[in-house]
Design a protein that fits this description.
By secondary structure, the chain is α/β, with parallel strands linked by helices. It contains 9 helices and 8 strands. The longest helix has 18 residues.
Length: 191
């Protein structure tokens, strides 16, 4: 593994099945270290993983998982690892700049059913909220976080969200408060 801080390892061990947490990060390497630990820990423990991320983050995560020796192709074939493009997935349920709840539930619930086949626990990572936030759609972002949070509690899966600190262009304290209020835990390590 690539210099992943020990505190991330301990954090994943303390996570409950319906945890919804967020990380605000300054550098991609910090996000990728956390994401690698979150996803590899789940796969190692017999869980499935859903990753809805940007192309660069999906490619980097796949590389890191392969470097750890995971049989990545088998995980994909068995729906234990499902990776989707964040922008494309977001478009599948947005309606005039606002998340359509019914379409969101259809899309995400379908992914959860695939990943959770046979009763497997599921971990999910998503960057769709960060894309909305970066586009200045703060209301739609908070709404999408609430949809995720409700589904996370109802379906008992762990959910990890991440935002680049550079995306907080409004009053930083108010922006962080809005985002952090929609999560059960905040990862404080940013760099």
């Amino acid at each position: 593994m690539q210099n992943r801080p020990a505190d991330f390892q301990m954090f994943w061990g303390e996570m409950s099945p319906s945890e919804h947490f967020v990380q605000i990060y300054e550098r991609d390497v910090v996000l990728m270290d956390a994401l690698e630990g979150f996803i590899s820990g789940g796969l190692r423990g017999g869980e499935s993983a859903i990753v809805i991320a940007t192309p660069g983050h999906r490619t980097e995560l796949e590389h890191r998982l392969r470097m750890q020796g995971f049989n990545f192709d088998a995980a994909v074939a068995l729906d234990r690892y499902i990776a989707l493009d964040a922008a494309e997935t977001l478009l599948s349920f947005m309606d005039n700049g606002w998340p359509d709840e019914k379409r969101f539930m259809t899309v995400i619930h379908g992914l959860l059913e695939r990943a959770g086949h046979g009763g497997r626990p599921v971990r999910a990572f998503g960057e769709m909220v960060a894309l909305l936030w970066a586009q200045g759609h703060s209301g739609a972002t908070v709404r999408l976080e609430h949809l995720w949070h409700g589904l996370c509690a109802a379906e008992s899966f762990a959910l990890f969200c991440a935002y680049p600190k550079s995306g907080f262009t409004m009053d930083a304290a108010e922006s962080l408060q809005q985002i952090c209020a929609t999560h059960s835990k905040v990862i404080s390590r940013t760099h």
